[in-house]
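worker-03 picked up job from queue 'complexes'. Input manifest follows; two sequence lines, order preserved.
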Amino acid sequence: MQVLQSFAIRAGYAVILLVAVLVLNFSMMHLAPGDVADTISQSMGGADQELLDQIRADYGLDQPFYIQLGHYIGGVLQFDLGFSFFYNQPVTELILQRLPATLLLVITAQLLALFIGVIMGVISARKPNGILSHFVTFLALFGYAAPVFWTGILLLIAFSLKVQWFPVAGMQDVTIEGGFWAHFIDVARHMALPVVTLGSLFLALYSRLARATMMETLGSDFVRTAKAKGLSTNQVVYKHALKNSLSPVITLAGLQFSAVISGAVLVEAVFSWPGLGTLAFQSIIARDTPTILGILFFSALVVIVGNLLTDLALRLVDPRVGGKG
Amino acid sequence: MALLSVKNLQIEIKTRAGVAPVIDDLSFDLEAGESLSFVGESGCGKSMTALALMGLLPEGVGSVAAGSITFDGEELTTATETRLREIRGNDISMIFQEPMTSLNPLFTIGEQIAEVLRAHQNLSRKAAWNQAIELLDAVRIPNAKARVNDYPFQMSGGQRQRVMIAIALACQPKILIADEPTTALDVTVQAQIFDLLQDMRRQTDSSIILITHDMGAVAEMAERMIVMYAGRKAELGPVEDVIANPRHPYTAGLISCVPHILSTLTEEREKLVEVPGIVPPLNDFGKDSCLFASRCQQAQAQCLEARPPEIEFGPEHQSACWRAQEL
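worker-03 finished. Artifact:
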């Protein structure tokens, strides 16, 4: 019960945080020079002052700032993020079309990086001078140093052009026919390179942290107790030590979630992945304010939900976090 | 035949300066049901001996270089890891000195007790859990049925040490090694833990190896004692005999260090006594001399030239001191 209650309190804070993000985003966009009317007139090849005023009146841009803000927040509360003149579509609809692709990419990359990172960390912690251990150190250095878009382009050249194992861009091949599995395999093939690109950076982070915490845990008193009980090596390592090493990794993964999202923007641009990142990129170029604001709002939403889930995961792993005591 | 027999045990650990014998030529026997105590300052090799008996010397750092450990007729120094795992926690179990950190913080104490039962006694989950409740009750944790679901952070230090005792005694081991089990606890709790250990020992008929630097605990708990100094056996004998009539200057020093409450200070016992100096550094451990000589007021030239042999005094009483006869 207590867990539910504190979760509800956190969810309440999250809503307040979201509104704050909305206000901030909107204010910043408002402060930036130029508005939708300028862009529209530009795309029309220019317009006189009268027409500009007309457009501003149509979009409600002649209203004072706080009225515009009020309208916007009022709209968002009804799941209406405005209308994109560039895509000629309601922003909410536009984003909901693109969101699944991004979530698929981001969550796969994050989970894969976590899973493989923890396994590599555990194995290398058990043999601190083994080959894998040195590889983890090297990977960490590489992951920190190499920019995501560079890794992406490199992988593209190597595995899509030189050896043509994976498709160059997009999310699926429209010519593919067949049932669910045919499409599943097709999407998986398209996903491979973007996921590896996005995951590599975080894999480096997680494997290094997992290695460090695991080494510390393996030297702790309760691991010695577990050995003294006569438990098998697997039980000592994977039951007693691993569970105690997970908390820091989960915490880091939660903190990194926002970085994964912003990394996704670059990766999506490189691989033309039809997600939010590509949409953000295009709408920034097109000065499509409502769409940019909408994407910022959804990114904030995803990060906040990610943090809530992290919190929940920590509670599940460690009884000392919140709860009884 | 003795239950446990250690002969000429030599344990070496790797240091930056080279290999040092942290246990040097140690021999002793432990009879079934007996209570034996190891005494000495920190760094004298008491805990190393315990870890060697369990086969838990720190991997890649410490190893048995020579000698034998025979348990119930079975050689342990050459036993396979699988066989050692069967023995650990089942035939020989151990309580550590840090109850605050020796339990896994993320599992209920019930699980941590039941786990050892499942590993060695082939009990079902339910049977092991029920026995865990009985064990908690046996180590006098009130309301065991409810507390079995608690996590270690919800218990006090004394309660955690009781849980450790319950884990160690779950499979009714033949030998229980208690490595300074009360060092981290309050004085009042210490007495309760010793009481509990005595009772449990009587019930399960286990032998106890008690490692401590608390002379009071030795007098209360043990029948025989071994005084260790710098990895070597300084003195061995029945507790009363050794305390009343120490045959090694180090033993005498340790006994005089026990704080006491007296209204009048006598000439023999001043306020607080200490053994001057410290245990020699590890790279001196292998030397062919008496390692205590630098701190000993009785030291002679001979003490610095050769390692003293273990001399017998009457039944069961040995001392490794060149001047033992004169003391």
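worker-03 released lock.
The mean pLDDT of chain A is 84.
Residues 87 and 94 of chain A are 8 Å apart (CA to CA).
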